Amino acid sequence: MSAPGFPVDEGPESVRPSGLLDVLGVASVVLDARGHVVLWSPQAEELFGYPAQEALGQYAARIMVHEEHLDLVVKLFADVMLTGQSWAGAFPIRRKDGSTRLVEFRNMRLLDDHGDVYALGLCADRSTVRRLERDVALSTQVITQSPVGLAVFDTELRYVSVNPALERLNGVPAAEHIGRSVREVLPLLDVDAIETAMRRVLETGRPVVDHKTVGWTPAAPEDERAWLISLYRLEDATGTVLGLAGSVVDVTEQHRAGIEAEAARRRLALIADASARIGTTLELDRTARELADVAVPELADIAAVDLLEAVVEGRRSSLGPSESAVIRALAVEADDAPEALRAADPPGQVARYGPDRLVTECVRTGRPVMVAEVRPADLPRIARSPEAAELLAEAGVHSYLAVPLIARGEVLGALDLKRIRNPLPFGEDDLLLARELAARAAVQIDNARWYQNARDTALTLQRSLLPSHPPVTGGLEVASRYQPAGATSEVGGDWFDVIPLDDGKTALVVGDVMGSGINAAATMGRLRTATNTLASLDLDPARLLEHLDRITEGLDHSIATCVYAVHDPELWQCRIANAGHLPPARLRAGHPPELLELPTGAPLGVGGVAFSTTTVDLEPGDRLVFYTDGLVETRQHPLDERLDALLALLDGPDRPLEEVCDLLLRTLHQPDNSDDVALLIARVQKAG
């Protein structure tokens, strides 16, 4: 219920009083013209210690002022009442309990509608007033001089005040903040997240501390910056919500340092990944693919590994200023960039790049070439052809980097990198990372290149030493195969031979020199030559192996296994001697395939061990299968299990010998087998 004559405003301010006066404890005292108390507020009771019933009607000076100040107060009271001028000041008052307190006064004359004069005194404990003054002064100085941006928002999230530091951070004068929202003042920040946080603090009262945001302000419109924002709800002494206070700290340098540290961590992780993934084999193409796989997408959206054709062929290459570069593409990897992928040279293709091309410049000078921001005029120097340049333009290639692959002082080729989806241009950090990857990979690529060249040489030698024979000879139909080891393994010393002898006889030989590489292939060639020479003497198989044993002893301590058999079509027999080799398999109509029971004998080169000859009867249609251990031996399975698998494959309907050879190799010899295979199958023909 409202007091008579004083209408009540039902607006928000009438129900949300300020608590500041309560904090001050302002007392109200009204005196009549004679200086007697006619009104005494509850705050006056607390301040002076007199209850209202004791103070009302009393001469105020007697109960409020110490005797020593009585004359001064009476004079001041008279001046206020006579002149009407207000007076303000502080002097000690005497409380009812006799204690003294320094009180701040504001005195003024009042006039009612009857013309009567009164004096109104507003007073408060001076220590409380001074404390609030200090707090206000301190707050003002802190806010004004603080390097931290500070702002106050009303309950509608509009700026009420900002300090000079926030003006500088935002690049917007204080006056242009007031009455506007963050969205209106700083639209290039993550406004949705900021306003959501502000509303949550306003509703719950739980502060938000160090919320990180990144964006742009008018203070630095082209420079992305980072800030930590803290938000607190403001309430008065009565708990009424006044709005929000916010602090803003610029952490751009720390943010950039964090980005750089994360980039450095990623670079180290990428280099570690490259060390683990590149060079897992000595296969040239696979090593190049591993390098391209590591580079995409961490470093580039499309990566190509190209080698100079001369380098692939084992020759050194040096380019003059006007020479083109003949380059073979080894690997291409792309991250969702089909147009750019079509513009690249397909793996295995050889292309000629003119002297003006950037990749030519890279391999000619041995130095990186970087075009941070690719313009249309740059594309013809990047692409292999005008058509490829158009594809790169369609793909949106905007940054280019080529680094040389250098190993042992020789430029092998280049790692070619392009960015499409990654919006950042290549920079110095990317260049350092690309050079580190290229340096590590180049050594592995060079190792693979030399290994492949050596392997190709050994394989050429191996194949040149193996015989070519007619499909039918001396009453036998013959089929053979030589299959080298997997691409990452060296060529071995496996061989076979079919040697026509006098009287229609035929010698069948399968052998395996221990070791691998050119030395094993060369030893195999010498043993094959010796076998051919000795076979012409029509020696017993055991005697022939004894001679081979002595020859092998003189070949740099080489060791070999061998099966030597002589087929006699007149006697329908085959005499066989074994030098530490796996036994041949025999297939006869109406019988399951079997391994011949032969004395194993010692390998050639051991010396001092006698060999023996076993005679095996053969009928038309019978087949003998000779093989080296690479066909059946693996690290995962017992040898007996693999020999059983061989016999199982040989069991079944009679097939053409060439088909049987393919079946055995396809089924038993694994692609990653580290040993080569020699296979020889002979079928006894009916008498002509």
Automatic annotation (TrEMBL):
Stretches assigned to the PPM-type phosphatase domain: 476-684
The record's annotation in SMART domains points to: GAF, PAS, PP2C_SIG
List residues of the PAS domain: 15-82, 137-203
CDD domains linked: PAS
* SUPFAM superfamilies attached to this UniProt entry: GAF domain-like, PP2C-like, PYP-like sensor domain (PAS domain)
Record bears the keyword Hydrolase: yes
Keywords tagged on the record: Hydrolase
**Superkingdom, taxonomy of origin:** Bacteria
InterPro entries the UniProt entry points to: Bact_Sigma-Reg, GAF, GAF-like_dom_sf, PAS, PAS-like_dom_sf, PAS_4, PAS_fold, PPM-type-like_dom_sf
PANTHER family reported in the protein's UniProt record: STAGE II SPORULATION PROTEIN E, STAGE II SPORULATION PROTEIN E-RELATED
Query: What is the name attached to this protein's record?
Result: SpoIIE family protein phosphatase
Q: What organism is recorded for this protein?
A: Streptomyces cylindrosporus
